[in-house]
Amino acid sequence: QVYVTGLGLVSALGASLAATWPRLLAGKSGLSRRQPFADLPPLPIGMVGQYPAQLGDLLRPAVAAALADAGLSPPLPNCGVVIGSSRSFQGIWEQQSKAWLTQGTPPEGRSWLTALPPAATLAIARQIGAIGPLLAPMAACATGLWAIFQGYELIRRGQCDQVLVGAVEAPITPLTLAGFQQIGALASNGCYPFALDREGLALGEGAAVLVLESGAALARRAGAQPYGRILGGGFSADAYHMTAPDPQQTGSRLALEACLRHSGLRPEQVDYVHAHGTGTRLNDAQEAALITQCLPHQPAASSTKGATGHTLGAAGAMGAVFGLMALRYGQLPPNVGLRGRPIYPALVQETRSETVKTVLCLSFGFGGQNGVLALGHA
C-alpha cells in the first residue's frame, strides 16, 4: 500500500498549505484583476506575489514543506522524484526568444539547458540529495495526477520506498495569456465553476508536492501520521479535439471507470469528488454529466479553481492535496465563486463537515488527456 505522509503547497490563496486551507474553507479567493503585461488587458488571475513567479520559487518551498510535514530531512538518496509541469519554463523561453528576436541576443547554452522541461525534477533531486528514479511528466492539465500515479507505481513495483511527487506551474506569461484569450477560454470578470452563467477560466500560479511512502517505510518510522492512501488511478487520451472535450465523454468515462476498477471501489463508495471544474462552458457541462452518469448517487463535489485559479499542470496535484485534507479533517472545501444555480445538484456551496473515506480527483486536459485518482482513508 502507498501512503501520503507529507504535503506542501503554494497557491494564490497563500504561500503555504497552512495559509491556503483555512482561507479556502472560508470561501476566499486568491483571484484579482491584474495587468502584469502592458500590452495585454487586465484579467482576473491568481498570482502568489506582486509579479509573475519563477517556477523554482514556487516549487522549492513546497518541497521543503512536504518533507518537513513528513518528518524527513535531506539527504534522501533512495527517494524517487516525480515533478510534472505542462508549461515548465515557458516564461524563460519567451524572455530569451524576445531578446533574440528584438536585440539579436541568442540565449546562452547553459541558461537554455537549465530551462528544459526535466530541469525542475533535476533541481529538486539535487535539493534533497536523491539518486533514485527521476521522472518529469507532461500531460496538459492531467499532469499533476500523472505525477502522483507514476510515483505510486514506482513504490508498487518495488523500485523505491519513498517518492516525492507533485507538479508546479508558473503560467502568467504573455504567450499563455494570449493563447487562452485567442481561443476564448479566459474569463473577463471572474471564475465561476459549475455556475449556469460561467464565463471561462482564470489562470493561477501554484505548486503542490506530496511525499509517498510504502507501508514498509512507514512502519520503520514511528510516529508518522499519513493523510491517506493512494488507492489507484485511471488514465486515457481520447484525442477528440485539440481543446474541446469529447461530447460523448468516451475517454473521460474510460478513465473514471478504470480508476474505480483499479481501486476496488464501487461507484456508491465515492464520498467526495474534487472536480476539474475550470469554469468554461464546455468542460463544466461535460464533467457534470460524467459525474452524474458514472456516479448515479451524486456524491458531493466541488472545484477549487474559483479560489486558486486554474494552475494547469499543477491543478490535479493541488486537488489531491485538498482531497487528502478533506480525508483527514472531514471538511469538504466549497466551490468558491459559484453564482446562482449550479449545474450539478450536489455541489458543495459552503464548507461542511462530513465523514469522508474515499475521494476521487478528476483532471481533464487539452488534447483529450484524462486522469482520475482515487484516495482513501489511512
Explain what the structure shows.
With 378 residues, the chain is an alpha/beta fold. Helices cover 34% and strands 21% of the residues. The chain is built from twelve helices and 14 strands. It has helices at residues 17-25, 55-70, 90-103, 109-113, 119-128, 143-156, 174-182, 215-219, 250-263, 281-294, 305-308, 315-329; strands at 2-11, 31-34, 43-46, 80-84, 134-135, 162-169, 206-214, 228-237, 272-274, 300-302, 331-332, 352-353, 358-365, 369-376. The strands form three sheets. Strands 5-4-6-7-1-8-14-13-9-10 form a ten-stranded mixed β-sheet, sandwiched between helices. Strands 2-3 form a two-stranded antiparallel ribbon. Helix 6 (143-156) packs across helix 12. The model has no long low-confidence stretch (mean pLDDT 95).
Produce a short descriptive summary.
The protein has 378 residues and is α/β, with parallel strands linked by helices.
Number of helical regions: 12
In round numbers, the mean pLDDT is 95
Could you give the count of β-strands?
14
Shape descriptor: globular
Topology as H/E string?
Answer: EHEEHEHHHEHEHEHEHEHEHHEEEE
Give, in spatial order, the strands making up the sheet with the most strands.
5-4-6-7-1-8-14-13-9-10
